[in-house]
Amino acid sequence: MEALVASAVGVLTAAGIFLILRRRTFPVILGLSLITYAVNVFLFATGRLALNAPAVLNKYEEVPYTDPLPQALVLTAIVISFGMTAVIVMIALSAYLSAKDDHIDMSASDSVDAPGEDA
Amino acid sequence: MSLFLIAALPFLGAVFPALLIRAGRNAAASAAGLTTFLALMGLLIHIPSVMRGDVVTARFDWIPGLGLNANFMLDGLGFLFALLILAIGLLIILYARFYLSREDPMGQFYTYLLLFQGAMVGIVLSDNILLLLIFWELTSLSSFLLIGYWKHLPEGRQGARMALAVTGSGGLAMIAGMLILGNIVGSYDLSVILRNKDLIQASPYYLPALILILLGCFTKSAQFPFHFWLPHAMAAPTPVSAYLHSATMVKAGLFLMARMWPVLAGTDAWFYIVATTGLVTMLIGAVIALFKDDLKALLAFSTVSHLGLVTMLLGFGTKFAAVAAIFHIINHATFKAALFMTAGIVDHETGTRDIKRLGGLRHLMPVTFTIGTIAALSMAGLPPLNGFLSKEMMLEETVHTTWLQSHYLVPGLALLAALFSAAYSFRFISHVFLGPQRDDYPHTPHDPPVGLWLAPAFLVVLVVLIGLYSAAIVGPLVAVVSSAVIGGEKLPYYSLKLWHGFTPALYMSVVATLGGLFLLSLHKHGEKLWNALPRPEAKTIFEAIIHALTQLSRWITDELHNGVISRYAIILVAFTVGLGYYAYASGSIGVVTRVPLPAQIIPIIGWICLVGATVAIMWFHRNRLLSLVLIGVVGLIVSMAFNYLSAPDLALTQISVEVVTMILLLLSLNFLPTETPWDSTAPRRWRDAAISVVAGIGAGGLIYALMMRDFAFPTISDFHLANSYKGGGGTNVVNVILVDFRGFDTFGEIIVLGIAALIIFALTEAVLSSNVRGYLLNRKPHWPQSGDSHPLMMVVATRVMMPIALMVGAYIFFRGHNQPGGGFIAGLIVAIAFLMQYMASGYTWAIERQRFYYHGTIGWGVLIAAATGLGAWFNERPFLTSDFGYIHWPPLEEFEWATALLFDTGVFLAVLGAVMLALDSLSRFAWQPGMAQEFPMDINPLRDTPPEEEQEKEQA
Fold first, then answer.
1. Among candidate residues B520, B535, B550, the one where a domain is terminated
2. Whether the predicted interface score ipTM is above 0.85
3. Which of these, B146, B259, B627, B736, is most buried using a 10 Å CB contact count?
4. Residue B429 belongs to domain spanning
5. Number of residue pairs across A and B with CB atoms under 8 Å?
6. Has residue A10 been placed in a domain?
7. CA nearest to B656 within chain A
8. Domain assignment present for A89
9. Which chain B residues have a beta carbon less than 8 Å from that of A81?
């Protein structure tokens, strides 16, 4: 089981990084989503894997519980990552609609404004 | 008065002048004066204990784990400096009230001045070096504001920038030095550090720490070669010069050297660095001062010279020299502040401070003449004034000092400096006040009102009294301060009196005075020679260095930050992989301690789906719609995996987030190109693939290694499991962690989520108000549209499902504390219920039935969470401590209430509002005229009449 989870994290990470290194906005967004999955599963797995042991207390008998802390962290991470995905989608969309171009890299013709010097 | 209050008073008082300036200049000045007076009184009531040699302390542990404690202490040395800062501050406040003109914003001035004063008091009272560093930087910042007070003058702005650059970078060096020092000792408390002389001096890091700390001191106290900023800082109003650049800020470096004297002094390194720097500074400052025509520049270089004198004395490392240094600090503060104020008066009344345009003022300004002359004679070191006493002690000590086996070098150069010092002091008197009266002063000079001369007059009285009755007036103070400086050891023999008999120091004094007079008589020729000599112009060099540094940083920034984002990503990934490899190669990995769980058939099928989908995304990512479908597969498998691996809360969250994310991405794909073109070369793709595979192996290997081993340290999860029910009142530990144990984190997270949603809203507003709107309105969709944009079945189904979905949301929300569920998940579920209406019945239809703004929902969510947290304060518990109890209403089961539920309501609202605001904003891009239909369905149950009849009715 551990090997399955670990290899899944590896595959998700690799695919995510490959897509992040593309030059258009949409694959980068996809790549970030994949990396989000990888990171969330990674964090979750730091609590070690357990079957049929949710961290819901049982009043009637002594049962094993899995580690609840990484779960709590990952829960908020999932929701936050939605917020962040939404922000980058919106940035990508605004950039594309304004410039009709979805390259993520600045081309040489894009001027860099030099900050003025105060006399 | 508590030391906390003394240090805080100037900061608190800084608010008042800025506010009270509307009530007039006197009100602002009085507020500043009163604050300073209160702090001064608070200091003075500690006189008895300080004079006994006790150390008054005030401790407050702020972050003990980092050694950062707000500890203050008041010993003799701190007392002397605090006294100088507050007492001279009071005089300066009085003087500035009459000095500043009607056009100057006086409220601002006093506010800056008090900020500065507070920072200085903080430095001298700190018992923690980290705290001291903060105050140290604050003085740099507040002096920047004060030097650049006359914002309209370019010299003022340049001088302020130069002072900030020099003292600020020195401060940075000092931070490093202090951290090293704290590391050597293992404590950042000064009182602990001061007891560990042997430990510090034996450490191999002693020399780097010493040099770094001295860099801070030398830049602050304008020691050669950093002396150049001080004369340029003279562009400040004269009260600032008198306060910062004679009495207080420039003495901060001396203070620190004196403070660290017990542990840093006494080594060869200390002697050769500090004493030599002091000696060189003293000589150079004195020589340049003689040839300056600007009164304030003359005084500035003279200050540089005197600071060098004190530095040299501290550098000698002997106890007698330390006493002399302390005594000279007191004397210099009195006569130099008086001289600066005199220069200010001359400038104010005659309209110029160019010595070449002055002269003959003694009859026109007799009071100013008297004050200026006495102070200048003290600076020259003539008896019976206080400057004479400490100069004698200095000369006496130089006679006993050998520098690299030379007995004559130090006394000789010190004598030369004293000679020049006498010469410029005499020049100050004779070229300004003596000589023939002139008739071309810019203004007609006369003595100023009493408010302007009172403060310097008071100081001059001190100059005379200390000179005549030194042992009685400052004797005890000098003794207490000196014993604080030398670390509580026995004081050396010294006597503060005018006549010591025919000593070498006396002969040297006589030579210096006569030589000074002689040099002044030759001033015309000397000046010609001086002007003919080539000399480096510090300002040009400084500006060249700054320019070079700016160019360098601009080059680095441009090279590294050239806008090619994929390169940043590569650098980041490659660097991270490299770091990971380094950690792997250099560390050791423990033995496997866990037995792996058996892999059953269903998880294996899930794994195949996930890996297959991921690889397919990589392969087909150019087809954007397909890759979205595939990423949905990945998300579903991940949520099922969470459920399988005992994380039902995560599974619920993941699956609902999956839904909204898919809707979001699909919406965005409406406007983006549907295909990704090929635009990287094959080698580049192979390189990227190689990097990704290595990173993937790293991440997978790391988590595999982690999962196969038990925790290296006991986790805090056991605490959570044990206390979830007892302390938090809930059995779902994950939810209790979210709303209770780590509620503060959750609180921060909902705020972040809200901010993200607001960013999206703001971006939408910005884009829709630009010319993009025109494009959007005329946009043709990528794909052929379905003939029926609001299918009947879907509209009916979603409306029927709406109450059910809301019910499920409420159910999930309320069970959250004890069963999987909670505010996050409920918020997402309800958001999906709303979204269904948007999708089925159209944006316009949905928005018309929308009764509240999503911004408000986010805001209420955060506010409710905050209010719940604040409620704990009324129970005298820390922020966000939850409370719970049980209610039993007879026919029902026992029923739990918890304040955590209220907090979770806040989370619910914030999540709901954020998700809806994000998607609502995105939907607005799609709006086109003609989309709005009054009735999303062709057949609407609300209508009694078929559409045709209705149209006819309208026409009729």
1. B535
2. yes
3. B736
4. 292-535
5. 324
6. yes
7. A79
8. yes
9. 657
